[in-house]
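Students often ask why we bother predicting the structure of a whole assembly rather than each chain alone. The short answer is interfaces. A chain on its own may look different once its partners are present, and contacts between molecules only exist in the joint model. In this exercise we take two input lines together and write out one structure for the complete complex. Read the inputs first and try to guess which parts will touch.
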Amino acid sequence: MSVLRLDEVDYYYRPDTPVLTAVSLEMPPGQSALVLGDNGSGKSTLGRLIGGLIRPSSGTITVDGTVLSKTPSRARAGKAIYVSQISYLQFFRATLSEEIALAVAQSGQESPTDGSLEPFSLPSLDTNPRDLTYPEMWRFQLLLLGSIFRPSVLYIDEVVAPGASAQQMALRQVLRQRRHEGRVTLLAYQRFLDVGFDRVFTVARGAVSEAGTPSG
Amino acid sequence: MAVYILSSDASTIDFGHTSLLARVEVYLGPPVHLYRPLTFVEHSGFSETVREEIQLVLANQPVEEPPQRAFDDFVEAWNLRAHLDYRVLDLSGGWRKFLGLALFMNRSLPARLLLDTTSHLSDARMETLLDRAADGGDAVFCEYDSLLLRRLRPSLPVLNDDGTTVSEADDS
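Now the answer. The structure tokens for the assembled complex follow.
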């Protein structure tokens, strides 16, 4: 059974302006995909649909066999999470350690070990998340939402400074962990990234298509 | 007009931009004007469409910083024709950032320090930005991912972080 399935999904902000049309895709357990597209192609809209933040104008999205639009908000976080481009809006507490504790409490998952934090190259856990640099903030968000919350489907909208080794190490860690646990991960970006994705989708003119294998 | 890449660390971009600006002024001479992304809310809020936003900004720029290009020329130079009738709030994050950058770059300024332009912009938007950056005034780009910029423009000179030393770009 697929973890994520989109069937003929359309999305319109207004009736005369389709953003995405007839999007169908399936992702089995453990798979990851890069979602490639130019600015304004619909990558973020696709992510918000998959994260359950907006509902399809028509068509259905199912996660673990459940229709996402019929899943209550609180239960949805265990199913699908959209990692926003505006990172600091998803932080609530005064220190990284408090933020991690909150994520553990909200998700019902185990606390991360010191060893599992290492790949995220974070500063002191006493740091206020709003004092992180933008790349650090991205890695911390990846830890919280991808590695602690562990939703069945994670859609990461953009990567900051993808050429930096710290960013790549954090991303590879999350992909590896989620693959091992049978969870699905998508990352949207404007350029190809060679960090071990299983598939590549392209978004253009409202359509999502598979771009073959991610050979680089 | 010269375009440079400034090598710096991420914390300087996030928390040291005032001193960074001062250091760049040592090299280029004051005043250097700062572009800093503002989480996608990069429009006046007084206009509905992209067309109205551009008209509003061009009509209200400071006398000492007149627009380099008038409306039609500006729209063509920045490839914005297809987006003129979009509501600004309906633009994607990348396009809204690009519009804000374009309007900033269109001011007649002697020198600019541009922080984190590459995040959220595709290569096509970056190509346009780099072309326009060479049009008027000096421009210094300081990026989290300067390699990306160097891939697009291998010949751009690189400034050291103290703003005083210039070296030619290479892959080291």
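Check your guess against this: The helical segments of chain B are 10-15, 17-28, 50-59, 71-77, 93-105, 123-133, 146-152.
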